[in-house]
Amino acid sequence: SGTGWPAFTQPAAENAIAYQKDITYGMVRVETTCNTCDAHLGHVFPDGPGPGGLRYCMNAVALKKREGNELKATFGGGCFWCTEAVFNQLKGVTKVESGYSGGRIANPTYREVCSGLTGHAEVIEVTYNPEQLTYADLLRIHLSTHNPTTLDRQGADTGTQYRSVIFYRNESEKRTAMEVISEMRPVFDEPIVTEVAPLEYFYRAEDYHQDYYANNSEQGYCQAVIDPKLRKFRELFKGKLKDGEEEKETNG
After folding, report:
1. 3 falls within a domain
2. What's the confidence (pLDDT) of residue 247?
3. Where in the sequence is the domain holding 47, given as residue range(s)?
4. Among 79, 82, 114, 222, the one annotated catalytic
5. According to the model, what pLDDT value does residue 62 have?
6. Same domain, 20 and 114
7. Is 79 a residue of the active site?
8. Residue 2 falls within a domain, yes or no?
9. Which of 18, 105, 219, 235 has a CA 20 to 30 Å removed from the CA of 4?
């Protein structure tokens, strides 16, 4: 680019970076940040070569620190024990954490969220490799493994904390969410009521909620609610399971 900063014409992968307005130093610019850790990466300018015409001017130090090509996605659909169990079995998913998003208070506890007064939903944050699994893939699986047509309820679990929701990190994710919802409307007899909202904060849930199904598979809720959900999921998405997960279904 002639500035001494490494410059690129496009992101390495869809949804790899987020964009926000930067008005520091008396200028109006578009800042780019990491879509995984929110770290500053650089700026994008409208003076690049064709066909896109953009110049991504990136901080070399940030580029050196980047490890892998992983992104994050955040959504909810009922009890996070269920959604965590599903996405932990997907090929291309490297980490799933249960937590809370969309509410009015910082660092909520499980008891506070269960009161229904915080505005938070039970959600999961999925870390995934976009070369193996796209954001649209994740959303299709999400909408297929819970009921997105029931407002503030999944089965016997009722309350706003159990609402169907997709939290997007940038406009690209928002567009993808709306497109996938539109694509899947014919699958359901009732209208999809899934909320699509910007992600503000993800608050990690208490340790005992993490990997709940893996650590408590003999518990009654796991056997009555999560096991049937997993059987349906494995049948629908056999080709996207991690090695060994399809064998579990065959032997189970």
Report:
1. no
2. 54
3. 8-65
4. 79
5. 58
6. no
7. yes
8. no
9. 18
Catalytic status, residue 82? no
**Which stretches in the chain have pLDDT values below 50?**
1, 64-66, 250-252
Helix (H, G, I), strand (E, B) or coil at 66: coil
pLDDT of residue 41: 87
Q: What is the pLDDT of residue 52?
A: 75
Q: What is the DSSP letter of 242?
A: P
Domain shared by 138 and 23, yes or no: no
Model pLDDT for residues 62-77, shown as the tens digit of each residue: 554 445 689 999 999 9
Give the CA distances from residue 53 to residues 46, 48, 137, in Å, rounded to whole numbers and listed in that order: 6, 4, 29
- CA-CA distance, 131 to 93, in Å (whole number)? 11
Instruction: Report the alpha-carbon distance of residue 242 to residue 252 in Å, rounded.
Output: 16
Q: Domain ends where: 65, 89, 106? A: 65
State the Cα–Cα distance between residues 190 and 138, nearest whole angstrom.
Answer: 22
pLDDT of residue 229: 96
Instruction: Tell me which of 17, 37, 65 is where a domain ends.
Output: 65
Q: What is the pLDDT of residue 59?
A: 80
* Dist. CA 142–CA 73, nearest whole Å: 11
219 is a domain residue: yes
Q: Which of 57, 82, 114, 222 is catalytic?
A: 57
**C-alpha span between 226 and 44 (Å, rounded):** 44
* 78 and 56 inside one domain: no
